[in-house]
Amino acid sequence: MAGGPKLPTDVRPNQFVEANAYAREVVERGFRFSPKNLGVIAIFGAIIPWCMYKGITNEFVRAPPDRFVRSPRSVPFRFVPRGGDETR
């Protein structure tokens, strides 16, 4: 597949998969773990999502009770159980 003889059973390489694999190799070779990277991972991977979660849940807690309740929707037809309408 990587430049060998072309046989009818060979699979053509997908250019997008190959580009992704190349970019991944570049990151694997170039990334070095350091305290600065740990701080960035902590901020964007834990602190910001936690702050967003707390902000959203506090909004629900402080809101009036009926603000986030759906109003009943009118249904254009009436559901009748299989056994017929026993309520009449």
- Terminal CA distance: 73 Å
Instruction: Return Rg in Å.
Output: 29 Å
Please tell me the overall pLDDT: 79
Give the helix level as a range of percent. Answer: 40-55%
Describe this structure in words.
The protein has a domain at 34-64. The protein has helices at 15-30, 35-62. 50% of the residues lie in helices and 0% in strands. By secondary structure, the protein is an all-alpha fold. It contains two helices and no strands.
Outline of this structure?
The protein has 2 helices and no strands. It is an all-alpha fold and 88 residues long. The chain has a domain of 31 residues.
How would the blueprint of this fold be written?
Blueprint: H1 15-30, H2 35-62
Name a few traits of the molecule:
2 helices, 88 residues, single chain, mainly alpha
